[in-house]
Amino acid sequence: MAESENSSGALSALSTESRSFPPSEEFAAQANATAEWYDRADADREAFWSEQAERLSWAKKWDTVLDWQPPFAKWFVGGELNVAYNCVDRHVEAGNGDRVAIHWEGEPGDSRTITYADLQRAVSKAANALAELGVGKGDRVAIQLPMIPEAVISMLACARVGALHSVVFGGFSPGALKARIEDAEAKLLITSDGQYRRGKPAPMKENTDQAVEGTSIEHVLVVRRTETEVPWTEGRDLWWHDVVDAASDQHTPQAFDSEHPLFILYTSGTTGKPKGILHTSGGYLTQAAYTHDVTFDHKPGESVYWCTADIGWVTGHTYIVYGPLANGATEVVYEGTPNTPHEGRHWEIVQKYGVSIYYTAPTLIRTFMKWGDDIPAQYDLSSLKVLGTVGEPINPEAWMWFREKIGGGRCPIVDTWWQTETGATMIAPLPGVTATKPGSAMRPVPGISAIVVDDSGTQVGNGEGGYLVIDKPWPSMLRGIWGDTERYKETYWSRFAEQGYYFAGDGAKYDDDGAIWLLGRVDDVMNVSGHRISTTEVESALVSHPTVAEAAVVGAADETTGQGIVAFVILRGGTAADDDAKGDEAIKALRDHVSKEIGPIAKPRQIMVVEELPKTRSGKIMRRLLRDVAENREVGDVSTLADTSVMDMITSGMSESKEE
Ligand code: WTA
Questions:
Q1: From CA 577, how far away is CA 588, in angstroms rounded?
Q2: What is the CATH number of the domain that holds 639?
Q3: Pocket lined around ligand 1, Cβ cut-off 6 Å
Q4: Are 276 and 481 in contact (CB under 8 A)?
Q5: Residue 595 counted as domain residue
Q6: What is the pLDDT of residue 90?
Q7: Which residues of the chain have pLDDT under 50?
Q8: In the list 85, 137, 182, 385, which could disulfide-bond 356, CB 3.0-4.6 Å?
Q9: Within-domain flag for 341
Q10: Are residues 400 and 407 in contact, defined by beta-carbon separation less than 8 angstroms?
Q11: How far is the CA of 70 from the centre of ligand 1 (A)?
Q12: Total number of domains constituting the chain
């Protein structure tokens, strides 16, 4: 390893992946974008974005494409539009009112079909109801709902009247909801009586009532979903079916400024209180619609699109609500968990609706792998054309499984890198244009500029790693942190202040061809004997071993090497680990495997076999907690963990594990 790499603080780029899949001629011939888009965008970025903004219907055209006063951007300055009109009404006006917007599939097996004309009536009713409740331009509305059509309708109704929504994931506690209501000073909460979880109704309103107590909330609008008995506060609480159903289905949308706020979405940092990420209208919708179109090769009226995210995450906002609906998509929305009532539920839905674009998270793909190849094999998945992933780096192993077992070896996979803060996809291959490599997000989409730099902000060369930064403003960028301008500057713009780069917090590398590989959050980087090693690369090496289903790797303090690599692995079904002798052998095999794949430097000091890994509710591994375990500390705050019992299981196992 070159000395300079360490002193510059860049990440070591260790693993190599040589497989590459160029697009088929057939796919390329019908693709929405071509290679020329990259050059056109590079030649004149503002002209390119202006062209993309023409996808939308503007009530008033903008005067200036971009006003950039670092780190504050305004896009399509002077333009006016209504976001909900763009996502709903204009499709009806274009004669597509009968097109299905949403194929909704409830967890218990009920379903609803909503056309664009239906959606227009539903959103208009909800908008009229909001207005009656005194909710208008600039007001904040908190939404905590399960994945039911009313979640989408509520968001669009807010957009229609110019109110900002703050959607809070359905699994978040009353405390988490309360903190978000208070920070945004929301005046209305939209929630439901209950929600289905793994086949059973679970309470919702009972919890949200605790969150509302003593806050700025004036009314609680309650959707009936599970028909559960709920506590009721007269005067404050209102049933959706009373208020919204009774409202008129005629509503004339008003145009708002391009920079009018659209929503706040809270994202938790590793420390401190959640950050209210603020997005606005024209630029956000432009990039949402554009990326949905070109990265998924979406064909309106033909494609059946399914994004499996929850509406409570940014992926649900951009790629269930705003991007697809702006493009007149027909999409599947599924309420439940992937194994209710059986582990083939997703593939059954793909078969039922003839899904052609399927967008999901790597953590779910690894879960499907664990459940076994025989499950998807029982369904007809031949309608699939494009597959996508988001949320974390995807291991080459999981990527190949996805390609072969789900995509039948014929579907391009788009690994899309972005963040709540970026609003929409930034780095991803274009299907039909860009050759793909298992585990790489490849290159920024046309119009976006992102580079990998060293400690001093200098771009690194091919084969080298460092920090991922975005060096030019983009339309869907966050406009700030709600109520905290200083924190916005400090969090995102201070690391490379001199250069004016947005620092995303992620490590990345270029391979020998210049393709970008994401290496995980830099806070998670391990430093072993002076070499900065990415958790992602070691995890990928572990998962590439046939016995491993999932792996999480952390650096733990080590007297000799600074940090030592500690790995937590879940074995695939059928691998015996209870037998001590066999277990030791399996662990030795894994350590050797990593050493062979990446190099002896990356050989884990210790490997622990576990049943589950601590994950946030959006599926990201909480390495912070594993570091506590690996360093024998009391485990820290587990409140954002999806299943808090996981940590007890891991800590009790840790005391029995063997170190080398
Ligand atoms: C990670 C989700 C590698 C990354 C849209 C980022 C990824 C964080 C990818 C943002 C990807 C997301 N490859 N890592 N394709 N996509 N990430 O805000 O660490 O929930 O900074 O947004 O997820 O997570 P967020």
A1: 12
A2: 3.30.300.30
A3: 267, 313-315, 390-393, 415-420, 441, 504-506, 518, 521, 618
A4: yes
A5: yes
A6: 98
A7: 1-8, 656-660
A8: 385
A9: no
A10: no
A11: 24
A12: 1
